[in-house]
Amino acid sequence: MGFEVAGEAYDRFMGRYSQPLARRLADWLEVAPGQRAVDVGCGPGALTAVLVERLGADHVVAVDPSEPFVAACRERFPGVDVRRGGAEELPFDDDSADVAAACLVVHFMADPVAGLREMARVTRPGGWVGATVWDLRGSRAPMAPLWEAVAELEPEHPGEREFQGGSRESLVDVLERAGLRDVEAVELAVTVTHPTFEEWWEPYLHGVGPAGEAVAALGPDGRERLERVLRRNLGDGPFDLTAVAYAARARA
What is the pTM of this model? Predict the structure, then answer.
């Protein structure tokens, strides 16, 4: 689903939002020195970077199904054990981590319940298992301006609103169906200043994720129409965009 792209392309597209969000997630999961952590769906390493900073590379393991992302994460953090694989079958031992986290991943898992169940398996009893997903249902994700413009041009396009985990209730439900109890959920907001329209728009042209795929599918004429709508809505810049994610956690 649009993630077999270079790590740099993803960084330009989502890193400006995922990096500050990853720091807030680590705070909420009480990541502290001495712990061992697993980053599930690590991508190019937004959350991995925070975990390495706090725990050291030898206390962090990571996994992602995208080969380019695995390669990028390995290059950036050579001391981290980064493996290629899916959340539904983690290549790590039972009770081998103190905390397991998935930042902006649950809605892309083939089987989110199985993925969270695996995260609980590799986490020691009492450790935190946590995940974040943008508020897709409430149209508060970073991509919301793009999807609003797409809906204006193609009202039948499904967008991302119905992705599993994209609301507080849906994310909590995934954790509970995975066998986790006493699930807590909060909102985590990130505000990014975009200096120009071009700086905001250019990353959408590289086919990253569902939004990038939707833009590519429009063809040249459709992209021109979409850009006109977006320029009308956002202006030339600078402008601030605030994105809101739901975070849910539970003890393994």
Answer: 0.94
